[in-house]
Amino acid sequence: MSSNWPSRGFGFLAIEHGSKNQMTDTTQAGPLDRFLGIFGDVRAGEGGTVLLMSLNVFLLLVAYYVLKTVREPLILMAGGAQLKSYASAAQALSLVVYVPVYGWVASKLSRQRFLMAVILFFVGCIELFFLGSRIGTPHLGFIFFVWVGIFSLTTIAQFWSYANEIYARADGERLFPLIAIGSAAGAPLGAALAEWLFGLQLNPFLMMQISAGILLLHLGLYRLVSRRAVGNATSAIEPMKPGNGFALVIRNHYLRLIALFLVLLNIVNTIGEYILGQAVVSTADVQLSNPLFNKQAFIGELVDAFHFLMNLALVVDVNGDAFVEAYFKKAEVNAKRQRDGYSVAEEGSKCVHCGRALDEPE
Fold first, then answer.
1. Residue 209's domain spans which residues?
2. Residue 229, beta-bridge partner list
3. Number of domains in the chain
């Protein structure tokens, strides 16, 4: 791979420049290549790997959003929005220790074995959380919240770095947007799946088992993609060269600015998460007088719906300004109806059969 193609190894956690790999090619495009060629510049022999990679990141995002949603009722039930803020700080501190350990382990194992070890490690952690729920381990929600943050950071960065390993720069520029479709679809559908599972009153720790199963499928697809990759075989056998990601950021002015931006972004995100957590818990507490009310499932479903709508808005490129504009347009319509007295007969403003305002969509 060309030496100026960014983020070698497995993401920002270990950075290295290696050799160029190429994917299996054929002289004639097949049906899958031609079909995917409608959406991007897919050439002969590339369609199968692109589809597998897109499906792989789709499964990863589905598993992540199930776990991300599960952590919300666990942390909010344990200590509310305040404990959630403390857990976010603990997550940042944990990464200071985790990143060097990750890099050290990566330098000891071959890349393929390291990739497999990372995924199996996280699946094993899920099983330990399940066991901890059975024996009553204290502060499990707090620990799980911190763990989910590390899990998402590692596995998503690792996926894109793996994609960087198997594609040359020019190929990546053509094909990564198609692969990213799986990521864009996995986030809202993962949140929708979690909402549906909470609606079934499924225990959060059982939902973790579903994510564990999805992660094993995710690992299996890595194996399939690896078998399709040809070229420099030593890149899959040799360990990654050790490196210090923190030192790289400190030395580079551009990376320092990105780091500062991420700090500010996380401050804003933490404040927003605190406000959301407080609102969810307060809404749930109002319903506690109902003996049939399941607070844990309610929190899970409400957070799931929020994640689903936000991810859907990102997919269709709808931002906050569009929401505000639509709100004020609707407010103007409502104000006019109030002034007109909501009369069905007056100017034919409503359907005489269903009562729907005639300017509302079906």
1. 11-318
2. 23
3. 1
